[in-house]
Write a structure and sequence with these properties.
alpha/beta, Rossmann fold, seven-stranded mixed sheet, 9 strands, 42% helix, 21% strand, globular
Length: 269
């Protein structure tokens, strides 16, 4: 299994809790994307880079006992939590496997391959989408959603946010990822051989609530990578986090998540 040094955002239990908040913020938008894929009873689905398995378990619910959902991720701690949560919820048609998404093509095919916020961390996003194509049966679907960080903003302007924005993009880029991969998604999917490519853009923003916390949570989640790459000091990161939290607490400020591009496509029969 390849090492995970390319991955900027902290994993483990703390990383899982950040993903839980993010999953709640994204829930209505990701569910709308799945609605457009026409899932039904008995289908087989793959969630690549599944994290804590929030979407994987939703896929399992949608395809019912006659179908199955499989989540693949490198993070052992997150997978253990996902397995425990699936057991607590009596979801029996779901499986979580530890594997590097860049190597986990495998011989099996699925009716749907899904990935959220995975491609932005990879040096070869196009190669991964081609891998998705190989994993989708003829007539099956792919659904991907990922960020375009260039569309991330707050109102009013915040110097702490601008510095966070700079650090995030620099860290992802330094490690071979693409913080603006979202704008490339439609062509990546089409060039991989999918047809009926559909595009939507969503951007959860708020005056209060969890969406406004994502910048501070994400800053803390990338802190290890930022420090390791020598882009900021611990004191600066702590000061930025305090400022981002204070900004989020102000009901007269607008904040949320980066622009998210959602793309679906069908493999020709």
């Amino acid at each position: 299994m390849a090492d995970s040094s390319h991955y900027v955002i902290r994993g483990g239990r703390e990383g899982r809790e950040r993903l839980r908040v993010l999953a709640g913020v994204m829930h209505p938008h990701s569910m709308a994307l799945l609605d457009r894929c026409g899932l039904r009873e008995g289908l087989a689905c793959l969630d690549v880079g599944c994290g804590g398995g929030d979407v994987t378990m939703e896929l399992a619910r949608r395809v019912g006992p006659g179908g199955r959902a499989e989540g693949v991720d490198m993070d052992v701690a997150k997978l253990e939590i996902a397995r425990a949560e699936a057991a607590q919820r009596n979801i029996s048609n779901v499986q979580f496997l530890q594997a590097d998404a860049r190597e986990a093509a495998g011989p099996r095919t699925f009716d749907l391959v899904y990935a959220r916020f995975l491609l932005t961390h990879l040096s070869d996003a196009a190669g991964m989408v081609r891998r998705f194509h190989a994993q989708v049966r003829p007539g099956g679907m792919v659904a991907v959603e990922d960020i375009d960080f260039s569309g991330h903003f707050t109102y009013p302007e915040s110097s702490a946010f601008r510095r966070f924005h700079e650090l995030y993009c620099a860290t992802v880029t330094k490690r071979g990822g693409d913080p603006t991969v979202g704008m490339r998604l439609p062509l990546l999917v089409r060039d991989a051989g999918f047809e009926d490519v559909r595009v939507s853009i969503v951007q959860p923003m708020a005056l209060e609530g969890d969406a406004k916390l994502m910048d501070a949570l994400t800053l803390e989640a990338i802190a290890g990578a930022v420090l390791e790459d020598g882009l900021a000091t611990r004191d600066e990161i702590d000061a930025l986090a305090r400022d981002l939290i204070a900004f989020a607490a102000d009901p007269r400020t607008l904040a949320g998540v980066p622009r998210v591009v959602q793309v679906s496509g069908r493999r020709p029969s």
